[in-house]
Structures are given as structure tokens and as C-alpha cells.
Amino acid sequence: MFIDFSDLKKTKPRVLIVENKPSTRVANQSLLMEWGYEPVLAMGAGASLIADAKRQAEDKRCSLALIDLRILDDDDEQDTSGLTLAEELGDKIRSIILSGYQNQNVLRAMLKKHTEIEFVSKTDTREMLQKTLDEEAVKCTAAKRNLVFENPKILEEIAASPLGKNTSEYPDQLVDVFARLFPNAKKLRLEKLDLRPASSNVSTVPRPNSVVLKVYEENYEPFVVKLARSEKIIKEVKNYTNHIHRRLTGYFSARLERNASLWDIGGAAYSYVGEFDVTTFSRFYEEKTSTEIDECLGTFFTRIWGRHYEQAHDEANVSLFNLYSQVWDNWYEKRKDDFFRTRFKGSNLLRAERSIPEPIQWFKEKIATPSNDVSIVEKTRVGVTHGDLHGDNLLVDTQKNVWVIDFERCGEGHILQDFIELEADIFNRLEEHNENFPAYLKMCDTILKQEQIQGFDESEIASEDPRIEKALKTISKLRALAREHTKITDAREYLYGLLFNMMFRAAMIYKTDPQKNERPLLLASLICNRLDHWGKPWPPNEQGLS
Amino acid sequence: MNRLLVLDDNERFADTLKRNIAGFDEYDTELVEVATTPHAAIHLAQQATEKKQPFTVFLIDQNLDAELDGIQTMKELLAVSPDADAIIFTGFDTPQDGIRAYEEGASRYLPKPFEPRELGFILKELSRSRKVRLEEARQRRQFKVAASIAEAVGTSLKLETTMDAVLGTLDELFEKTRLCVLLYDKHQKFLSFAPATLKYYEIKNPQYTQLDTFHLDQGSIACRVAKETLMSRKMEFVNVGDINKDIDYKNLNPDTKSEFCISLLNSNNDLLGVLVLERDRINGFLASELDLIKMVARHISIAIERAQQSEELEYKSIVSTRTSWAANIAHGINSEVNNILSWAYLIRKKAGEDTEIGKYALNIEESAAQLASINPWANKPSEPVLIDTFLQEELLEITKPKDIHVDFLLSAPDVKAMIKISQFKNTLRLLVNNASKAMKEMEEKRIFVSTCLTNNNSTIEILFKDFGPGISEDKHSSAFRIPFTSKQEGGYGLLFIRQMIEDMHGQIRLLPYEKSSGAEFLIQLQTSDSTSNFQGG
Fold it and tell me: Where are the domains of chain A?
């Protein structure tokens, strides 16, 4: 199906027709076509009609349904199977019940419980039916509301992204999400949050399935809107309710105002207290000095997320690998037959000079084999972690107020996880500036060296590459904050987390972006090497580079 | 109050005793009689008992110069007044006499001479124990009455059967009392005899034998009690000792001297009616009977309330069994109307609104909508309609083919009544049909219809009257409740009329039967005035 994002009027919303009388079915079909809808007919009778209705609704990604009240038994006064079906179709679809029921008052009382379901009598005029249908369509479809997007180009980009491709068969879902998130809007302006330099449009994090935008509705404060697959949005809403809503300290937290989940795509709209002009931490990091970056990180981990660390608890004999796997939706199980059969090519240069292990194999043998799992620790701390903390999920305004969005993976996890993820993100950003490989390798050695979690010495931070020096300064700050808030000292816990991050990233992008796959695997390999040399000098003297 | 009889052949002693007794402190003496012979004493006792004012204490000298001695006379006296106490006194104290006196029922045996104060103590003590005894007896009696009335109330759910059983029981309980139960009609504000009442209550005054209703404003003691109850919303009663002194009294029975009226209320404290008791003597009702009468009134109230509820249930069950199939057919009709509306609409749109075909299609849609609204269960909301005009137009149309002449007396030209048009048309059609059948033997058929605004302009009353034989009294109370017909089957017309009118938040009643003056229906409907306030709030 083709959709012109700059002129949505031409798009016809799909309306499911559930009617047990074939003659009425055909009549309704003709009416809907006359009124500019695309009718989707459920066929069959009785229970098979209901089953077909559910199937058709999903197959054709319907946004509305016109349902007869009595589907099962036309002669049974008590039959309200249509209402039951409407409930079961859920909120992906707005339903209108069409009924020849005698006592409309009784029916209206019944429907009062279901405020989302509308009702039209079979004896009402067709104009009345059309009016009701149009009113419902305006609530849930961009087309019938004729919702205008000021910059439809962004929509085209999203439609072409991996997320958008989920909706490629029925791309109107993409605009209908906005129609539902902004129920009164006539015109919306979308703005990308991560305004990365034009030269680089590649995300540093594996997030092919979500997009974050700033959305302006007329003169209102903008919302930050996350689009993702429906099930992810549902998960995010649940996590937000369980872990974030009224549970963060400080003034600055995003507030989930509305959410909508359609068949393939959903959206969560966050409002935030802060300056109008908000940017991502990624961009902030690029533009600001290390002092400003440190200040911003300090605010976030101390003032915003701090309460979660205070309420963390100890757990004994835990596999760190399992902790991370849970947060990442058992990624290893899903990738082990494919990615984990591949091999790390390794930098020829490095392999010649250092005998570093093949990280995928190392991981398989020493971590993913439960009997050998070296990531099992006697004791660690577990608390609520964001689970997906990277520079695009952390927002900063001009007053350096900072808050997070995107709670899809929020939940109990390794207490170090958020520090490690942000460090991995900073590390990953350097991929694009790898001209100075020796300096890069030196940085890797620096972040692997210490046996205690702590900030680095001034001398260790200094680098001939200013980008690397900035990264090291920020990582040093993150380590110091991690020590302060988690009270964990053993740096191996940190390195395991970093290893899992690198492996996860490599596994996510190895097909789409094989060039980029080498860098995370290189760091992974060095981590494996470091762990094998624990308690010994680092970098290993006999093979180290000077 | 104590009523004493002194029997002593020594007249001087007896008089002294009489004076002494009258002077006792804290001893209520109503009457002290003196007799000097057993014969005179027994005669006085018999007279007192007949007057329902029996003696309470006998003071008897044992040694009488007569054919009977004191103890023998006491036996006779106690036979006449079984509730009384007897004191035997004697100048010749022998143990045998004392034992005999007690064996024969004396309360005290007192040797002479005795101190008057001693007698005073004895009398007071007897008075106290007598009160206790009487209270116990009263309670036993009440319990028995309660049990028998409760039993009578439970015999049936039908008012007529229940009233018959209750009044029958009361008739046995209250001797020499006429009972009647009057029911209150809240719409017409009158009291009328409850079913079965006239079996137990006869109007003897020829002036009133035709009377069966008592309008609250026309007076009578029962109406006064009813009005007071409507004001206070609690049980009211009045005990008129002498009906001649009560200006409200309506003399239905020349023998009546005193009357007791008590109101009957349902569980919401709405007035149900009045229980009336009459006796043939002045001050016929004693204060001590009040509790008993109150209890009886409560039981009758329960019986009436239950019977009314069961009538309502009966009506509803009949209507619902008769309408469930109709509701199903209506659903089928509506489904087809739906299709007709859809196709006609599409024809209109495709052909264009202004084309000939488009106009035909619009006509089809209108007809389909009409078809759907004919069904009385469509439950469209009521709408304001100029009622006089509507009645005039509709009734003329309905009556013309039946050759019935309508006399109108319409006095609400600008009033809009809240009606469901097609339902109300059906109502009128059914009423005219009934009237037409009732008058089929008559050469000149006519009906009379009038309108009148009441109740602060919030209600419009429509009177509909035919001139057939009318609906006889015995069928009146059930006319709108159970199938009503002069034939073997059918007769649901009045039930449906009631259902349709009540569906419009109106009411319909059959006005009291008057021989050979036809059936008279009063329909009350809300005006748009009454609903505009309501909707505004």
C-alpha cells in the first residue's frame, strides 16, 4: 500500500464489517465504499464468523469496526456477542455496534461501561451512521482527520527505516499513531531529536526498532515521542508504571502522558519539565566541554536516578551474564545459532603483536556454557536500571537539566549496567574517528587496566587525540560515579558488563553493518585477554606495545 | 379505678366502711355501692357487669342474717364478676370459716374488729396485684389476636381474599363492633370500601346506601384521619367517644355512638387507607384497647401492601409474556429496515438528491423509518406535541370509518404534551376500538373527549368517555392489571394501553363506575413544561 504523507486525505481507513446476515453485509460494504472507507468483510456464520473477524482485523490492520450486536444467534434476545467481540478486538480498533435491539435504553446503559465503543441503531438514518463512523475515524485515523504534518520528509525517513518497514504493508499506521497520541491535533511538526552531523546518520547504538522525535502541536509545549513496535511500547508503558512513575527524585523526569499501540507500531508521548530547547546527551557531548559533561552526568546519576541506587539490594551467587540476558530479552539464545557460529577476523596488526583470544569462542566457552560461567560472582547488587541508557535516551536542556526517556528495558538489573552502557556508547562513538589506531589501543588498555572501579589518573587520560582524551575524561567520571553510587569495587564486574555490551552490539549489527562489527569485537577480545591476565601487570609486558 | 361493693346487713357499719374507703390515700375509688342483702348485692353485680363496668372488689360480711352466708354469696358474686377480688370479714373468727373462704376464692379473710388503715393496705395491695394480672391477660389476648390476624393475612396474596379473612377474624375478636377498611386512591384523593368490606359493614342509613367513596374534602372522621396522615406521614388515630359531638361524623348507621379511626400506612409511610371501628355506646373504646387496635392496623397495612405488590407483579408478568415474542419480531423488522435504509440511501446518493429517482429513494427511507417506529418497543424518546390539535386530528381520522361521533371539550390549545407519537396513536386506536365494541348495539355511537391542564401546568389530563354499558364495579380494580374482556380470550388491549402510557411517563385510570353512563378513562401526561425544568437540571 502506498501512502502520500503530504496528502493523507487520499488514504482510506480500513473498516472491519462483522455482520451475520449476508444481505446486510453487502449493504454495509457498499455504504462504506460510498463514504470513502475500505471495507474488510468477515465471512462465515456464528463462531467461525467471529474467528474470521479477528483474523481479518489483524491481517488487514483495520482501524475501525462496524459490528452487529447479535452475531451468534439472531433470535436470542440475550445475545450480545458483538459487544464481546468489540472488547476482544481491544483498543487497536475503534468499534461501532450496530443493533436492531428493541430497547435502546437498556443497550445504552450496557454500553456506558464501554466508553470506547459507540452505538448506532439499525433504524437510524444512514446519515447518522455515517456521522458516527466519521467521528470515530477522526479520533483514530490521520486520514479522516486530515492531519497535516509540516515536514512529511521525516515520516518518509521513518517509513524507510527498519522500524518503518514493519508497517510497509499498511504504512498508514505510522500516521495513525500520531492521530491517537494527539487526539485534537490538526497539524503536527516533527523534529528529530538526535540532530547528528549530516555526515553521520548512523546510530551508535543498536536501535533499529525505535525512533525518538520531538513533536509540536500548535502552540503547546512539545512532547518527546518514541515510536517502536507495539509490543515494545506496551512493555515500556508497563515499565514506566512499575519503576518510573512517581519513583524518581528531583524535578526533572519525563512524564508519560499518552500512549497508543496499533498492530505493528506504537508510540509513547512524554512531556517534560525543562527548557523548550532540549537536545540529546549525544549532541551535548559533541558540543560541550568535559567539565560541562561531568556536571551533567553528576546531576543525572546523583539527583535523578539516585533513589534507585539507594534502594538496591544484595544478591548472592549471581551470573552477571544471566542478569544482562534478562534485560536484553535473552538475546544470546536468539543469536547463538547464527552470529555465534561466525568468527572474529581481528585486526591483523594487533593479532600480530598480541596474542589476544577469539572473543566469540571465548564467550561461548567461558560464559555461555553454564557450568563454566566465569561471570558468576559471590555477591553483587541489583536495583532498578534504565536498561538502555545511551546518549540518545538522555535529554539535556540549555540549563543542563537532564532526564531520561525510553523505559522499554527498565527494570531490575545489574546495578552497574547504566554506567557501563553509557561508557560503551561513548566508546562506540569513537568508531568513526579511528585514524589514530595506536592512541585508540592505548585508550582500550587504560580502561581495562584498573582492578578497582575508580576514576583515572590525569596522566592516563592525556592523549594526542583530543577526541580520545574527551572520551577518557568522561569514562573516568562515569567510573568514579559508579563507585560512589554502587559501592562495588571489583573492576571485573564492570568489565563483564562491558564485554556483554560489546558482544550484544556485535551480534545486533553483524549482518547489517559488518564493517562496524570489528571494533566492538576488538574491545571484547581485549577484555577477554584482560580477564585471563587478572592479577598480572597490564598491558602484558612481553607483548605490550610501547 | 376501683369499683367496690360492700355487703353487710348492718347498714351503719356498711356506711362507715364506705366513708373510710373513700378517704384512703393513694387508692383510686370510682364507686362504692352498699347492699344489705345477698340478693341485692348479686343484682347490683349483674347490672354492673352488663354495663361492662363490673365491680373490682367485693367486701362481704360472713355473718348475714339471710338465706345465704357471706362465703356463699361471694361465690355467686365472683361468678358474675370473675376478675374481681373478694374480702370476707367476720366478728366470729373460726379457723374453719377462714379455710372455707379461701377455698371458695376469697382474696383476704379479715377478723373483726379491724383498723380502717389495715383495710386500706389490703385494698391497695389487691389493686396492685390486680393490675399485674390484667396486664398479663391483656398481653395473652393480644398475642392470640396477633397470631390469628397474621394467619389471616397470610392466607392469600389477593386483596379480596385477604380482607375477607382479616375482617372475619376481627369480627370475632371485637364483640359488638362494626369494622370497615377504607382504601385510599391517591390519584382521585378519596377513600373507598376495600373489597369484601361490605360483607362486614352495612350502611343502614337509607340516605347513604349508594355511597361507596368518600372524597377527602367532603369530610367524615375517616377522611380527617387520612388527611392528617398525608400531612404527618405517620400513623394517626382518633377516638371519638360521642359521635354526635363531632362535626365531621357521617351518619351511615344510626346505632353508632362512638367511633375509632386509625390510618393504614405502607413501608414508605404512604397512606394506604383507614381502619374504622364503631360501637353502639358512648365512649365505646377504652384506652386499654389502643395497642391492640394499632397492631391490627399494622397487620391490615401489610396485607394491603402485599396485595398491591402482587397485583403489580401479575401485571408485569402478563405484559412481559405477551411482549417478548413481539420484541423478537421487532428485531427482525429492524434488521430489514436497516437494509432498506442502506440501499435506498445508496440509490439516493448515486442518482443524486434532486433527481426523480433520488426523491423516490428518500420516500422509501421515510417509509422504512416509519415502519421501524410503529413498533411500540422502539423506545424513541417522547417529544412535545400540541395535544389538542393532535387529539382532534387523530381521533377524527380513527373514528370516521367506525361512524362514531366525537364531542370535544378541549381547553389546552397551547399545551404541548410529551408523547411518543406512534405509541400514542396506537393508544387512541385501542381506546376507540374498545368504545366501538362497547357501543355496537347502539344506534348513535359517540365518545366524549376533554382536556384540562392541572398540577401547576405540569400535567395534562385527557378524559375519554364512551356511552356504552361501562365496566362494572367488580371488574374495575383488575381492568388494567389482568386481561380484561367480555369474551373468552384476548382482552390485552387495556394492558397494552397502560404499558404504552406508562412508557411515556403518564398514567391511565378507569374512573368510578356509574350505572349506564359508559366507561370513563382519565389519561395523565407530562407537559413539556414539566420536562423542560427537569432537563435543565
Answer: 8-142, 147-272, 319-377+416-532
The contacts of residue B535 (CB under 8 Å, 6+ apart) are: none
Q: A103–B379: do the CB atoms touch at under 8 Å?
A: yes
Q: Quote the DSSP letter at residue A452.
A: B
Please give the CATH topology (third level) of the domain spanning B379-536.
Heat Shock Protein 90 (3.30.565)
- Exposed, middle or buried, B101 (CB in 10 Å: 0-12/13-18/19+)? buried
Does A251 score more than 70 pLDDT? no
Q: What does the pLDDT average to over A115-139?
A: 90
Q: How confident is the model at residue B87 (pLDDT cuts 50, 70, 90)?
A: very high
Which chain B residues are closer than 8 Å to A122 by Cβ? 334-335, 337-338, 341, 372
Cα separation, B288 vs B135, in Å, equals 10
Average pLDDT of span B394-399: 90
Contact of A247 with A307, CB cutoff 8 Å: yes
CATH-assigned architecture of domain A8-142: 3-Layer(aba) Sandwich (3.40)
| Yes or no: domain B141-310 corresponds to CATH 1.10.3660.10 | no
Question: How many CA atoms are closer than 13 Å to the CA of B92, on its beta-carbon side?
Answer: 7
CB–CB contact A24 B341 (8 Å): no
**Predicted complex ipTM:** 0.70
Name the interface residues of B facing A (CB cutoff 8 Å): 324, 327-328, 330-335, 337-339, 341-343, 345-346, 349, 365, 368-369, 372-373, 375, 377-379
Nearest alpha-carbon partner for A171 in A68, A61, A54, A51: A61
Q: Which CATH number is associated with domain A147-272?
A: 3.30.200.20
User: Domain coordinates of chain B in residue numbers?
Assistant: 2-138, 141-310, 379-536
Grid cell, residue B434, equals 374498545
3.30.470.20, 3.40.1390.10, 1.10.287.950, 3.40.50.2300: CATH of B2-138: 3.40.50.2300
Q: What pTM was estimated for this model as a whole?
A: 0.60
